[in-house]
Please model this.
Amino acid sequence: MANLILKEINQNFPDLDKVYELNNRAFPKEERIENEKLLTIIERCNAKALAIYDQDLFVGFVIGAYSSKYEIYYIWFFAIEESLRSQGYGTKALQAIAQRHEKAQMVIEIEVLDPESENYEERLRRYAFYQRSGFEKSNWSVAYFGAEFQIITRPAPFRKEDYETFWNELWQTKAPKLYPLKDFSK
Model:
């Protein structure tokens, strides 16, 4: 695996069908943006969609938004092709993104680690992946799409006020309410 290449996705992107197919497979219906609306919403929010390649091989995509004012890179969606997972591509992709935004705190929301959830093992694997990539748990969570997500960052600590202001400016709407992260170890 050479250094990964990040290519901006737009309406004329040659592998747009691969992005759409992965979007459909990687995210539950209630959490994903419909393919027909995806690029329009990204453009409206000043976010960027980047395809991830290993030379000519489509590896996955990331959708995120960056603010130089707050030095935050918010990862909205991140997906690696199923057949390429556990081969280091996800870690390399996050490193490539971090190199583009060296001073930024990377923020991502993942499902809370609730032992009662149906996909608890999957959640643990996902969190372990992000931990290996340098992300740390914050003490905050957010709820939308009918689910609760914990906020993890790289580097820590999470800058709550910057995140809320960044969100308000990016989406031109009030940031979702942040809640103290529940302690599921009790």
